[in-house]
């Protein structure tokens, strides 16, 4: 579903990604972990063309993301993304936030979009909050609206960049629960996360990045129990 081949990214003279390759198969849950500044956000942003790569290839299904003639809308329909900052429209209700892109970007029928948006609100367990404004919702609730908003575009893969990092501990759980349910429904998910328990329980595969390279990767069982690289061991000793 997603394939990265020798992806490099520099900002000026700073090389942030130094040849990253991996792939994500349909239905897989992949977690990327690593120290701050190691290039995780840059990597995930390259996949939906928020950041142009310097060299290398990124394929999302049959779309070549680095193609200068890239159809960004076609890519955005396949790839949903949720950030640490949920950036909901403050003057729109939760339901209106979820409905906005399908109506204004895809010009879909309002009645159908609303029906789907209500179902998505239910899916993220926010039934009853449809008419609330973002300011009336907790951080965890707003983040779940942001997830529903992404799902409203019916993506094939969801990218999550530290979506729980700004939340209170008690609301982190509910957001992780939503993502876990999505994964169990078969959604292909690529997450940058510091939630090691979540990664251990839910991920099919873990990638550990440091200074723009993948240092080590593997299924969670071996990754967490027998990390082989000293950098991985040091990182895990700090976060576990
Ligand atoms: P992480 O998500 O792992 O913390 P990032 O991908 O955000 O790492 O950042 C990796 C490095 O790239 C950092 O040194 C950061 O300062 C730099 N960086 C990220 N985005 C930009 C940008 N738009 N312009 C210049 N430098 C950037
Ligand atoms: Mg980041």
Automatic annotation (TrEMBL):
One of its GO terms (cellular component) is plasma membrane. InterPro entries: AAA+_ATPase, ABC_ATPase_HisP-typ, ABC_transporter-like_ATP-bd, ABC_transporter-like_CS, MetN_ABC_transporter-like, P-loop_NTPase. Residues 2-236 form the ABC transporter domain. PROSITE patterns: ABC_TRANSPORTER_1 (PS00211), ABC_TRANSPORTER_2 (PS50893). It is found in: Cell membrane. Keywords: Amino-acid transport, ATP-binding, Cell membrane, Membrane, Nucleotide-binding, Transport. GO terms for molecular function: ABC-type amino acid transporter activity; ATP binding; ATP hydrolysis activity. PANTHER family: AMINO ACID IMPORT ATP-BINDING PROTEIN, GLUTAMATE_ASPARTATE IMPORT ATP-BINDING PROTEIN GLTL. This is Amino acid ABC transporter ATP-binding protein. The lineage of its organism: Bacteria, Pseudomonadati, Pseudomonadota, Alphaproteobacteria, Hyphomicrobiales.
């Amino acid at each position: 579903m997603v394939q990265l081949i020798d992806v490099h990214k520099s900002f000026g003279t700073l090389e942030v990604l130094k040849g990253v390759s991996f792939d994500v198969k349909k239905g897989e849950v992949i977690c990327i972990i690593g120290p701050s500044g190691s290039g995780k956000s840059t990597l995930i942003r390259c996949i939906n063309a928020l950041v142009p790569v310097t060299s290398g290839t990124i394929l999302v299904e049959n779309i070549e993301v680095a193609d200068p003639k890239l159809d960004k809308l076609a890519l955005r329909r396949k790839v949903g993304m949720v950030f640490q900052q949920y950036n909901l429209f403050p003057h729109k209700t939760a339901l209106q936030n979820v409905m906005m892109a399908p109506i204004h970007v895809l010009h879909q029928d309002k009645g159908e979009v609303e029906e789907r948006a209500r179902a998505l609100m239910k899916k993220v367990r926010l039934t009853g909050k449809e008419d609330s404004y973002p300011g009336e919702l907790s951080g965890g609730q707003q983040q779940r609206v942001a997830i529903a908003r992404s799902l409203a575009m019916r993506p094939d893969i969801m990218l999550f960049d530290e979506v729980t990092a700004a939340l209170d501990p008690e609301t982190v759980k509910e957001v992780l629960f939503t993502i876990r349910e999505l994964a169990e429904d078969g959604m292909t998910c690529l997450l940058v996360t510091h939630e090691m328990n979540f990664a251990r329980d839910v991920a099919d595969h873990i990638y550990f990045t440091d200074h723009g390279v993948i240092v080590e990767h593997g299924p969670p069982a071996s990754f967490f129990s027998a990390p082989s690289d000293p950098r991985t061991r040091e990182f895990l000793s700090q976060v576990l």
